[in-house]
Every structure is written in structure tokens, then in C-alpha cells.
Structure prediction request, 313 residues.
Amino acid sequence: MKPESINDLVLKAQKGNHGAFEEIVRRTYSDTYTLALRMLGNTEDASDVVQEVYLKAHKGLKRFRGDAKLSTWLYRITANCSNTYLSKRAKHNHDELPEDSKIVDENLDRNPEFRANVVGLRNDLTVALEALPDKIRSVLVLRDIYDLSHEQIAKELDISEAAAKVRLHRGRQKLREKLYPMKSGAEYFGEWHANAV
Amino acid sequence: MQCENLYDLMPDFVDLSALPADADKHVSNCLRCQAEMAHYRSIRRSLSEMKSSMVAPPTDLLSDILSAVRPDADVVRIDKKSRRRKVVGGIAAAVTAGAGVAIYAAKFAHKHKIAS
Prediction:
């Protein structure tokens, strides 16, 4: 039997079918948790935030009109809840060290050498992302991983669009500095020559 | 246009499908700027690909969420939070007690050493 589409589940859940909402949770919670973890850098905080996200989604589902994808709507709620959590955490000055997390990769059907390079860079990226200040990491994650617009990011993080752009700019610069420490012109040329031949 | 002027603009250029004409003219003749752009694009691409990589959630998260969205959810959530607080409180108390014993033992040993 063909599984029900997420849109059908949303319609049912909006009419009060709790089973349909539970199915939505089952299908989306890993993705929501991953975003929360990337924004917060801490498994326990991410779990707390994910619960908040689904409580808000449950209460607000009737207002979801389906203009955007459900995943984008959940990303925005997650961004908002994570931001509130980060603000509280900053007040209590209670940052914890990031924990190692198991990465589940869904795209394994590629060239192994290419995959090794990509996975290597991705692991370095994960570490570099976790080292960024919370405010910068949030914007970078929402824009460059989850593809939210500057306008959406500004709204959910309660900042101006200009601030979102500045944080994104700084975040990209910081990642570049971490992942490719500055090289001399000669090294650049050597690298280019090696790639060209 | 100089490399230094371009470096500061490059983080924003990765969103563009084509560089502005003056920047494009410089980059096409400058190996350093080409390498720099390649670094930013590589990071941008890898970040974008991370969307499909999910982190495995804790095993009890799903049941916690489902409990939280049920009508009696508040009770369940408070119970879980207070249980966690109790565990953390217990650990803190044990650490404090351990530290107290260690300080007392150190003082006792010091006194004993002076006396002898």
C-alpha cells in the first residue's frame, strides 16, 4: 500500500486526527532534530527544542496554509525555538561542549574517492561550524544548509536582514579561514598546476 | 580591481550565478582569486549537501515528542525535566561531598605532617 503523502497527513491532522499528526512527527523528527543540533551544538538542548517545536506545530498546524513546504515551516519554527533557547543559554552562560554525533549519510551512490573528499571536508566543516559563535552559526546553518531566505532568517531570529547578511558574511569568512588557512601565491599556483595536469 | 578588494566581497559572491563584470575580469586573470573563489564555492557546496545528512536522534526522542503532544503532555514533560534535574542535582551533591572529603583529608594530612 502506498504511504500517505505528507500533504494528506497535514489535512487530516488539521481536522483533528491525532494519528496523522503522530505520523508527521515520525517522518520529520530526525530532520528537525538535525537542524536543532546544528544550531545549538548540544544533543540535550536539541532534544528539548525539538519537543517545543512539535508542541508549537501541534498548536499552530491549523494556521499552516500549505503555501510553503511543511519542512520549511518546521525549519522556521525550529529556528525560532532554537534562537529563544540560545538567548536563554547566553543569559545563563551555560554553554556546553559539543558532543560527537553519528552522521547518517543518505547519498552513498557516488564515486568513493569523491565521497572520501566530500566526507572529509564535511567532517571538518561540522567541527568548524560547532566552533563558530552561536549567532553566526545560526544564520549560516539556516542560509547555507537549509536554504532559508534572508527575510525568513531575519524574522525567525528576530534580527534585521542587514544583520543576517553581515553574520552570514562573517560566518563564511571564518569557515574559509579555518578550512583553508591562507596560502602564499606560489602555493596557490602549485595547487592550480597540480589540478590542471 | 585588486585582489584585496575582492577578498572581502567573495563570501557574498558565492550566491551569485555570475560575478559582476569588473570582478569577473580580474578573477579570470588571477590564479589567487580563482583559488579563493574555489574555496568559498567548495564550502558552500558542502554545506548545501549537509542538508541530506541527518544526525541520528537519541533513541527515546520520538516517544518523548509523542508524549509531549498528547493531552496530558505537560505532566509528562515536567516529570522528565524534574527527573533530569534530580540526576544533575545528585551528581552535583556527590561531587561537592567528594571535594569536601578531599579538602578535609588534605588538611588532616597537613596537620599531621606539621605535628610529626
Observations:
- The first strand of chain A starts at residue 103 and ends at 105.
- The CA atoms of residues 42 and 98 of chain A lie 5 Å apart.
